[in-house]
UniProtKB/TrEMBL annotation:
This is ABC transporter substrate-binding protein. It comes from the Bacteria. Residues 1-26, 325-345 are annotated as: Disordered. The chain crosses the membrane at residues 31-53. It comes from Planomonospora sphaerica.
Length: 591
C-alpha cells in the first residue's frame, strides 16, 4: 500500500496513510492498515451486491407503481411481460416502474367508465380486448383518453367442433356472414336453420359477439338484404346467446338435432383447445367476406405525470420483439396480423391474416348496440281475437273458415317469441261476457312459462287458439274491447318490455248495433291516452275478403299509437308481418 494516493483525497483534507503511520507506534499500525483496506473492500462489495440483488429483484423502494387492468384473455401474457419488465428494473424516464396486472371483463370496465354502474378498480392503464369498448365509453364520457396503440390482434371467427365440419359445409356451405344470416332467418323455415343452430356471444357483454353482429349487418346491407331479414336474424340470435366464450366453445361438442355453429375470437379457439384439451378440438372458420379484429388497445388513464411516464414505458415494452413473441405464443397475432407458431396452417388455423373489414364509425357502433338492446327487450302482449259471426264464413278454395285461418295465423305468429315473453288472449264479439260486455279474458297476461290451471301459459294459449269457435250470431264489438284492453295494458305497463295489443280479425271493423263506443270516440281515447314515455302500441292483422273494407279505420287506430295495420293473404305471410313488427320496436315510439 506504499504507492501514490489520489490527489482528490488530499484535496479533500484527508491525511495519507503514510503520514498517519508516522504518528502510529510499533507493529500495531502495520496490522491496522491492511485490515482497514479489507473492511473498505468488503463494504464496497456489499454495496455492489445490494445494487445487483435489487436490480434483479425489481425496482427500488421508490419505484413508480403502475396498475394495469387487462382483458381476461390477454391477462396472462401481459402479466408475464410485466414480470420481466419489473425484474429488469426498466427506466420510465425518471426512475423505474413496478407493474401490477389485474384482470377485468372489458364490458364491466367500459360500463363503469361510461357511468352505467359497472365497478372499476383503480387503474392507470387499461387494455380491453377491443377499441369498440373505448368508442362506446368515449361517446358517454369524452374525458376517457383515446387509445395509444394496439398491442395485439385476434380476428373474430366462426367456430365448430372438428367432428361436424364436413357435415356443416354440406348444409351451410363455406363460412360466411351471409350464411349466418340465412341460417338465422326467422322467415325462412326451410332454410339452413333447419340443420344449423347458430350460437352467438351476447354483443352487450362480448366484443367478439358485437364484432360478429357488426360484420353480419355490414355484409347484409352491402348485399341488399332487407331490414326484416336482418332483424329476424337478430331476434333469432337473441334466443341463442351465450354470455361466456368458454361455455359457447364447450357446447359445440354437444350432439343435437342441429349442428351447432358459434362465434369466437381466434385466440379464444386456440386457448380453448390448449387449456381444456377437448377430445375433438374446435376449428376456426374464417368468413369469406372478411372479418373484424379484436385490437387490444392500450388506454393510459393515469393522471399523475410520473405514473403516465411509467405507463408509456410499459406500453413501449409491450411492442418489443420479446413481448410480441410472448403474445404470439399464446395465440395472439401482432398488431399487423402476424401469427406465431401457435397460429399456423394446422387444425383449421391459417397463418395468413384474414381480410379485415372496415372499422365502423362510432355512430354505427352505437346504433347497432342500441338496436340489439331494443330487440332484446321483452314482450308483453295481449291478443284480441275476433270471434264474431263473419269469422265462421268459409274461405273459398282453402277448406278453412276465417276463424280457422286466423287461429292458425295466431299460433304461427307466437312461435318466434321467447319463453321470457308475457302474453295473454282475449276473445271479442258482442255481449260475449254478459249484456254490454263485448270481450272475455280467455288467458290472462303473464309469463309464457307460468303455469295456469296446471298448463304452461304458452301451451294454454295454443290450445285455446286451436279450439276457438266463432259465435254465429255475434257482431264485432271491437271498439269497446280495444278501449278496455288499452287501459289494462297501460295500467300494467312494464318498462323493460315492448307493450303491444295485437288484434286478429277479418277486417270488417266495428259492428255493434246495441251502441257502444263510436270510431271517433275510440280514436280520441287512444290519442289522449297514448304516452310516448310509456308506449302501448296497437298491431292489427286482418285476413279475409272483407279486410280491405276496414283498412282505413284500422290504419287510423294503429297510427294513433305508433302501431301498424296489415292485411295478409296467406298464413306464410305472418312471419314477415311479425318480423316487421319486431323491426318497429327499434324505432318505437317515434316510427
Amino acid at each position: 500500500m506504499g504507492g501514490r494516493h489520489r490527489t482528490d483525497e488530499l484535496d479533500d483534507g484527508y491525511t495519507s496513510p503514510r503520514e498517519a503511520s508516522r504518528r502510529r507506534r510499533g507493529g500495531r499500525g502495520k496490522v491496522l492498515v491492511p485490515l482497514a483496506g479489507s473492511v473498505a473492500f468488503a463494504v464496497l462489495l456489499g454495496v455492489a451486491a445490494f445494487v445487483i440483488v435489487n436490480r434483479d429483484g425489481g425496482c427500488a423502494e421508490d419505484a413508480t407503481g403502475l396498475r394495469v387492468t387487462a382483458s381476461p384473455d390477454i391477462h396472462l401474457a401481459v402479466s408475464q411481460i410485466a414480470e420481466r419488465f419489473n425484474k429488469a428494473g426498466q427506466e420510465d424516464g425518471g426512475g423505474c416502474a413496478s407493474v401490477k396486472v389485474t384482470k377485468a371483463a372489458s364490458a364491466t370496465v367500459a360500463s363503469g367508465l361510461g357511468g352505467s354502474g359497472g365497478e372499476v378498480g383503480a387503474m392507470d392503464l387499461w387494455i380491453p380486448d377491443s377499441s369498440l369498448w373505448v368508442t362506446g365509453v368515449r361517446a358517454k364520457n369524452p374525458s376517457v383518453p383515446e387509445p395509444a396503440v394496439s398491442v395485439a390482434q385476434s380476428p373474430v371467427v366462426m367456430v365448430a367442433s372438428g367432428s361436424v365440419v364436413p357435415n356443416l359445409k354440406k348444409s351451410f356451405g363455406d363460412a360466411s356472414w351471409t350464411g349466418m344470416i340465412n341460417a338465422t332467418n326467422a322467415a325462412n323455415v326451410d332454410g339452413p336453420g333447419r340443420k344449423v343452430r347458430v350460437l352467438a356471444l351476447d354483443p352487450a357483454l362480448n366484443s367478439a359477439g358485437l364484432g360478429a353482429l357488426l360484420a353480419a349487418a355490414g355484409v347484409a346491407t352491402a348485399s341488399g338484404v332487407g331490414d326484416e331479414q336482418l332483424v329476424g336474424a337478430m331476434k333469432t340470435l337473441s334466443t341463442s346467446t351465450v354470455k361466456d366464450q368458454g361455455a359457447l366453445l364447450a357446447s359445440l361438442g354437444v350432439k343435437g338435432r342441429r349442428v351447432p355453429l358459434g362465434v369466437s375470437s381466434e385466440q379464444g379457439v386456440w386457448a380453448f383447445n390448449n387449456t381444456k384439451k377437448p377430445e375433438v378440438p374446435a376449428v376456426p372458420l374464417y368468413p369469406a367476406e372478411g372479418t373484424f379484429n379484436l385490437d387490444y388497445p392500450a388506454v393510459v388513464t393515469a393522471q399523475d405525470a410520473g405514473v403516465r411516464k411509467a405507463a408509456e414505458a410499459f406500453v413501449k415494452e409491450l411492442g418489443t420483439p420479446a413481448a410480441q413473441k410472448t403474445l404470439q405464443d399464446q395465440g395472439f397475432r401482432t398488431p399487423d396480423g402476424k401469427g406465431g407458431k401457435a397460429i399456423s396452417d394446422a387444425d383449421g388455423f391459417q397463418a395468413e391474416a384474414p381480410q379485415a373489414l372496415p372499422t365502423p364509425d362510432p355512430k354505427t357502433v352505437a346504433s347497432m348496440s342500441q338496436s340489439w338492446s331494443r330487440i332484446n327487450l321483452g314482450t308483453r302482449l295481449v291478443t284480441l281475437l275476433d270471434v264474431s259471426g263473419t269469422m265462421a264464413l268459409p274461405i273459398p278454395g282453402t277448406g278453412l273458415t276465417r276463424m280457422q285461418a286466423i287461429s292458425r295465423i295466431a299460433i304461427e305468429g307466437m312461435k318466434p317469441f321467447p319463453n321470457s315473453s308475457e302474453m295473454g288472449l282475449w276473445e271479442f264479439s258482442t255481449h260475449l261476457d254478459g249484456k254490454g260486455v263485448d270481450y272475455r279474458e280467455t288467458v290472462s297476461v303473464g309469463p309464457l312459462t307460468e303455469t295456469v290451471d296446471g298448463v304452461l301459459r304458452r301451451n294454454l294459449i295454443n290450445q285455446k287458439l286451436a279450439g276457438v269457435q266463432a259465435r254465429a250470431t255475434g257482431d264485432t264489438g271491437l271498439n269497446d274491447t280495444l278501449a278496455a284492453a288499452y287501459r289494462m295494458m297501460k295500467d300494467g305497463y312494464k318498462s323493460d318490455k315492448i307493450n303491444t295489443i295485437l288484434i286478429m280479425t277479418d277486417g270488417a271493423g266495428n259492428d255493434d248495433p246495441d251502441g257502444g263506443m263510436s270510431n271517433q270516440e275510440l280514436l280520441k281515447l287512444l290519442k289522449d291516452e297514448f304516452d310516448p314515455e310509456k308506449p302501448v302500441s296497437i298491431l292489427i292483422i286482418a285476413f279475409g275478403p272483407d279486410a280491405p273494407k276496414g283498412k282505413r279505420q284500422m290504419d287510423a287506430i294503429a297510427k294513433a299509437t305508433n302501431g301498424d295495420a296489415y292485411i295478409v293473404k296467406d298464413i306464410l305471410e305472418i312471419r314477415k308481418v311479425f318480423l316487421e313488427g319486431m323491426k318497429r320496436r327499434l324505432c318505437s315510439p317515434h316510427c
